[in-house]
Amino acid sequence: MKIIDIENWNRKAHYNHFCGLKDPYFALTIPFNVTKAYQFSKDNNVSFFAKYLHDCMKAINAVDNLKYRIENNNVVQYDVINASATLMRSDNTYGFSFIDFAEDLQTFIKNIESEKQRIQQSNDLYPPKNTLDCIHCSALPWVHYSGHKEPVSGMLESVPKLSFSKAVKNQSELIMNVSINVNHALVDGYHVGLFSEKFQQNLNK
């Protein structure tokens, strides 16, 4: 982790402007072609959720601005960003996970399964580790939506929030919409565009 020198940062003016707004967040909902990722999951007997979340996390970790966080009045850049995903219980409630990112898919899947087991055996909402070096994300496999709004606390937040829709057939392709909510003090549309491009590239592999 490193601390950003705000005074000499090329985003200083942008940071100060957006931090002064009551609502400094912007959101986009982006369609992704998940045809190859879905087929990969079936061919290799792995969870489709795990496959696309891993592809997503690789893209997140490839964009510096998505690794920035506001912490104790500082802007910091984390070395690795993990996934805090909402995971369902058998009673249809859920818990927040903290899934350590790993470049290796099988290791990442093991980390997901470990968190699933912990959540199934607990009524806790929050994970034991609840730090800012993550994204907050959830899957809504019941709904193919075109817009999405995340709840906010009213306090200044900097953790990106993502949501994954139901994947639906569009002719020969399988399309999944993904919403991403970010703090404009740290992230611009350009950076979301970089993420989108890298995520789609990963899904296509």
From TrEMBL:
An example molecular function term from Gene Ontology annotations: chloramphenicol O-acetyltransferase activity
Name listed for the protein in its UniProt record: Chloramphenicol acetyltransferase
Any matching Pfam family: CAT
Entry-linked InterPro entries: CAT-like_dom_sf, Cmp_AcTrfase
Keyword presence, Transferase: yes
PANTHER family, A to Z: SLR0299 PROTEIN
Organism: Seonamhaeicola algicola
UniProt keyword list: Transferase
